[in-house]
Amino acid sequence: MGFPVPGSAALLLASALALLAVCSAGSDAPRGVAVGFVFDPKARCEPACKHAGVCIRNNTCFCAKGYEGETCQYANCFPKCKNGGVCLRPGKCRCPAGFGGRYCHKVTCDGGCWNGGECTAVNGAARCICPSSWTGSKCQHAMCPQGCRNGGVCVAPGICSCPDGWVGGACHTAVCSRSCMNGGKCISPDTCRCRPPFSGPRCSDRKKTH
User: Fold this and answer.
1) CB atoms inside a 10 Å sphere around CB 77
2) What is the pLDDT confidence band of residue 146, given thresholds at 50, 70 and 90?
3) Is 70 exposed, middle or buried (0-12, 13-18, 19+ CB in 10 A)?
4) Disulfide pairs (predicted)?
């Protein structure tokens, strides 16, 4: 003859039996006690079972689906949280920086990767892998192998944006608004270097010889 079971305890017992049936059917729920366990309505668990766990014998908890541990204190995510994620509650992971998705399985780069860069995990951290002509944390900086001189800025692969007074693939050619004469050479914006015996802003003046 069994023990009389109070109403609330009967409800908990029914819940435990239902969970046991699920476990024995091959569910992904946390592993419970063996089939045929004895439920003691007077059992006490110290500390108490958490997350709707049922105290079935002294200091023995039967955990609800999605929880595990001696007192059902740990949430159980299935599949497991990846990339260092922490299971907060069944099916809910808290992901570290650089990872997202329900199970932290997606790599996410803050701000995205520009110009064809690919976001991937490198040594456990999310990073942009850039095409050969781009660099920077987001692949935001173009690369100009020839360099950009005289204050020029690389704005696209191999292309420099030059300041006023300079032109050329590397901003290396000065511009004189009025051309240098008599073989003179423009060496900086509006500045000529003259060949002797010429001088002046445009090398137009011949030095007098005595």
Assistant:
1) 20
2) very high
3) middle
4) 45-55, 63-72, 109-119, 130-139, 176-186, 194-203
Query: What residues does 135 pair with on adjacent strands?
Result: 141
Which neighbouring-strand residues pair with 16?
Answer: none
Pairwise CA distance, residues 38 & 50, whole Å: 20
- Domains of the chain: residue spans and CATH: 39-76 (2.10.25), 86-135 (2.10.25.10), 144-173 (2.10.25.10), 176-206 (2.10.25)
DSSP 148-189: --TT-EEEETTEEEPPTTEESTTS-EE--SS---TT-EEEET
Whole-angstrom distance, CA of residue 185 vs CA of residue 174:
9
